[in-house]
């Protein structure tokens, strides 16, 4: 078990860019930024859907009023 752990430690400290801490941090930061953008987009879509629903209700009410006159 100790030899396995020492091999893993050696692999992590070697020059492999995928195992370096900086590469991991940049990947995590990139994923977090993408997640934030996705959440912002979902919020925007939800707001647009709400606005469209309000416009449809207003349009229906206006049509009903115009039909009564």
Secondary-structure blueprint:
Layout: H1 2-13, H2 21-68
How would you describe this protein?
- This protein is mainly α.
- 87% of the residues lie in helices and 0% in strands.
- The longest helix has 48 residues, at 21-68.
Tell me the β content. under 5%
Distance from N terminus to C terminus (CA atoms, Å) equals 87 Å
Order of helices and strands: HH
User: pLDDT under 50 segments (min length 5)?
Assistant: none
Number of helices: 2
**pLDDT averaged over residues:** 81
**Biggest sheet statistics:** none
Helix content: over 70%
Gyration radius, rounded: 27 Å
Q: Structural class of the helices, strands and pairings?
A: mainly alpha
How many DSSP E strands? Answer: 0
Summarize the structure.
By secondary structure, the chain is an all-alpha fold. 87% of the residues lie in helices and 0% in strands. The protein is rod-shaped.
Task: Looking at this protein, list some descriptive labels.
69 residues, mainly alpha, 2 helices, 0% strand, single chain
């Amino acid at each position: 078990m100790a030899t396995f752990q020492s091999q893993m430690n050696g692999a992590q400290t070697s020059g492999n860019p995928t195992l370096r801490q900086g590469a991991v941090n940049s990947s995590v930061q990139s994923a977090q930024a993408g997640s934030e953008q996705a959440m912002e987009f979902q919020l925007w879509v939800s707001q647009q859907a709400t606005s469209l629903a309000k416009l449809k209700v207003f349009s229906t009410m206006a049509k009903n009023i115009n039909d009564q006159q």
